[in-house]
Amino acid sequence: MDDLFRYIDTHGDAFIHDLQRLCRQPSISAQGVGLEECASLLVAQMQAKGIPARTEPVRGGPPLVVAEIPGDGPRTLLIYDHYDVQPVDPLDEWTSDPFAAEIRDGCLYARGSQDTKGNIMARLAAVEAWLRVRGRLPVGVKFLIEGEEEIGSPHLGETLRERPELARADACIWESGAKDHRDTLNIYLGVKGICYVELEASGANRDLHSSAGATIPNPAWRLVWALATLKGPDEQVRIPGFYDGVAEPSPAEMAQLERIAAQRDDEAIRRDLGLRVFLKGLTGAELVRHHLFRPTCTICGLTAGYSGPGSKTVLPRRASAKIDFRLVPNQRAEEIVAKLREHLRREAYGDITVRAFGLEDPYKTPFDAPIVEVVAEAAEEVYGHAPIILPTMAATGPMHAVCGQFGMPAVGTGIGHAKGNSHGPNENIRLADYIQGIKHIALILERFG
Amino acid sequence: MDDLFRYIDTHGDAFIHDLQRLCRQPSISAQGVGLEECASLLVAQMQAKGIPARTEPVRGGPPLVVAEIPGDGPRTLLIYDHYDVQPVDPLDEWTSDPFAAEIRDGCLYARGSQDTKGNIMARLAAVEAWLRVRGRLPVGVKFLIEGEEEIGSPHLGETLRERPELARADACIWESGAKDHRDTLNIYLGVKGICYVELEASGANRDLHSSAGATIPNPAWRLVWALATLKGPDEQVRIPGFYDGVAEPSPAEMAQLERIAAQRDDEAIRRDLGLRVFLKGLTGAELVRHHLFRPTCTICGLTAGYSGPGSKTVLPRRASAKIDFRLVPNQRAEEIVAKLREHLRREAYGDITVRAFGLEDPYKTPFDAPIVEVVAEAAEEVYGHAPIILPTMAATGPMHAVCGQFGMPAVGTGIGHAKGNSHGPNENIRLADYIQGIKHIALILERFG
């Protein structure tokens, strides 16, 4: 592999430049900004690397970017990524423009740099290195890069049910992974599912003077009371049937959670986040178990009435909350929405509308799938230490939509770091991690081939 | 009075023009916009009418606009108004610019047109008519026009305790009043007090990916749970001692409430607001009793995390709520804030910060004060019908700060109408009401003199 690694080292600046170019193209799926443009740019960048890429239309959504490159061996590896990114607000907390892709102190700052344009470009760079240095790939590779991951991949499942050949492979490298607070690489074998909903309560047909509060229904109060029925201060979700079928960790998984806990530096994480304690005072393996195996109900946004400085005495006409439920095996997203609606009806909040954005089911790959060992051993070689293998991650992706129909194993690995701030302001990657990540993928291609 | 009324009729266009000019000067106290400019403009407009107006500095706030004009009789009438206005959002629900003061179909649309620049200008016009037509006033008049009413008059009480001569008089005409849905003038003898507070909960030191929801405290949830302890779906405020000393209506007041209820068209109000029912299904005298005699706890604003379109999976770093409590005799604003803080501590939400903006105590004038009869009889003569006398109003003003130290009686009357939309988008007055209101004040000056 020395020839490949040398190529990667000597072309580092070009790979960084490629990534800056991709990051400078906004592609915010929640706001429909720049998606087609980003897909076209990406196809052009792939073609420039000798990869026969193309867009594939998606009914009702931005196109997929796909490519198939034959390899020497009989196996095919699917690489799943997404070119869309999260919205950028709160904009005033960014040090540089989210789409400037500015480099400071060895880090590249951009919305999408860690999640997940950095991974897209690292994987393309690894393929480029193989093609340029050896003229061929040791394994067949398929790229599947979508543009709606950050809004829950609403069209991916249907598209892949109609065109399964876009995803069919022997194993899948999933979109992301990161070094933890001790700089140990974490790889993961599954994702939580998600139900992202917006609840909206309505009152009078216009905002009123707040002196009307004694006689006019207030949608902000109704929303607060309805929310308080969803989860209490004990952090238990109160929707009947919410926990039905939730899989607890097996003894083997629990042992792995203990190993993970022993290697984590929770105190460093806690201090870095400025927290007095973690939720419910969790520590050690219990903290890890909650993180990976417990479903959640999180308020992502509250909106009603006046939010400016000082006071405005207004009785708002409407109030809304954005909520995400992260789901674990064997919860099903569709069922959770149905239970939520039924719960609100039963609690006499049937007037509150529930809009669902992007439902995704959870997915998990078994520990003993061959790709797991390949990714872990290649990581040990490139990073100089054994990675931590997470049985699943706390976040979500359309792994069920991509891999579920084939029962295809998937492993997530990537170039992130503990302060990469995905979805927040000043999202960034370290350039050294980026180059290391390219080598990791290059080695995985050989080992899986 | 024919000579005066003729003057008012023939100068109607000029009075409307004066009001447009005042409305076109933004003066938003919550945002510190345009206050000094508005005070200067107002002084100039008053001087142009022959009124010896001046500004009086206020420590920590925008100036007062004051004037004293001697009259024939021994009595002095104080006219209280405010030149500040509410913020304009939601801006996209306005048909014309809030500061364009556009006239459409006999109405003038502007932020502050009804609340309360229209009343300022009507009262100035009435004084102008007396001075121009008769060369004198029948009663001494003091103007006291402040610039912080919409944020709870935070400096007025202290200013008037130091300089009581600015307010001392035999009676006070308060800032506003309006015709109801049946076009009957409502005058009122008191105001509710207010406690406007902002509650803020904090979590991690930055917004996080919402997948952290299983282990990281969420300030939006803490805020929701804390709010749910303040008031329940039964609309009862749960802060211990909140209702201590609350004065129920006397039998005489209850009889007045019955009379008021008999003259209201609650169905028209309900339909106009697009409501299925009023709060708790209230109707008739009970609806009026709640409106005027019950204290409230109203959420005016909720803010946390993402409020844009679609979904953003973020765990917010902070969450806040703006809440107003409207108070009735014998609640005291300072005590309510203290009880709120103590309640949050006891319910284990002591980490939630409470910021208080503008505390004001309630105030009520007795039915048998001479000014009440003067205003009511003058109204009957000008409007052609007896006004409805409300023992108090549901809204707030610094009546206690202005009148409390002298025990001075105060009556609110004004040029508003039922669809004037104070504090909301498309605030407006009807020009015919404006001219009628000028005549009403002109007649009050004579009768009280």
Major sheet attributes of chain A? 6 strands, mixed
Whole-number tally of structural domains of chain A:
2
Distance between the termini of chain A: 14 Å
Find the CATH topology of the largest domain in chain A: Aminopeptidase
Task: Specify the helix fraction band of chain A.
Answer: 25-40%
Largest inter-chain interface? A-B, 90 and 90 residues
Provide an overview of this structure.
The structure is a homodimer of 449-residue chains. Chain A contains 13 helices and 20 strands. Chain A is α+β, with helices and mostly antiparallel strands. The first copy, chain A, folds into 2 domains: 2-191 and 363-448, Zn peptidases (Aminopeptidase); 193-246 and 295-360, Alpha-Beta Plaits (2-Layer Sandwich), CATH 3.30.70. In chain A, the strands form 6 sheets. Chain A has a 6-stranded mixed beta sheet. A 4-stranded antiparallel beta sheet of chain A has the order 13-15-11-16. The longest helix of chain A has 22 residues, at 113-134. The mean pLDDT of chain A is 96. Chains A and B meet through β11, β12, α6, α9 and β13 of A and β11, β12, α6, α9 and β13 of B.
Short description:
With 449 residues, the first copy, chain A, is of the alpha+beta class. Chain A contains 13 helices and 20 strands. In chain A, the strands form six sheets. The first copy, chain A, has a six-stranded mixed β-sheet with strand order 1-2-6-3-7-19. In chain A, strands 13-15-11-16 form a four-stranded antiparallel β-sheet.
